[in-house]
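Hi C.,

You asked whether I'd gotten around to modeling the 130-residue construct. I have! Everything is below, sequence then structure, no commentary in between.
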Amino acid sequence: MTILQPPGWPRPKGFACGVSAEGTSVFVSGQIGWDEHGRFAAHDFAGQVRQALRNIVTILAEAGAGPQHVVRLTWFVTDKREYLAAQREVGAAYRQVMGRHFPAMSVVAVAALLEDEAKVEIEATAVVPR
């Protein structure tokens, strides 16, 4: 995987401007902050992020992949202000699960998610080298 950072552009904090990679593509559908039994253990934003990322890592393992293979994350958040207010805790949760691997990312504020209790949904794309 190669991080794409155009010369002269400011280095983004917590994500990459772009990523190129070759290998087997793995696509993980949107994961929310519930556990394998469909229960929300955390009701705070950062706790739900942590669980959604854990779910992604568990699914990636089924393809022989790990956090280091993720090339893109798309986050859907139900409350922009809550997301911004929890950035420090979200960053800590992210590093706990994903380490210091920062792929291309987008964050989109949405009116609602299908599960009423969900505050965030994250989908992932990974590339496992051949």
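If it helps when you're writing up: The first helix runs from residue 45 to 61.

Thanks,
B.
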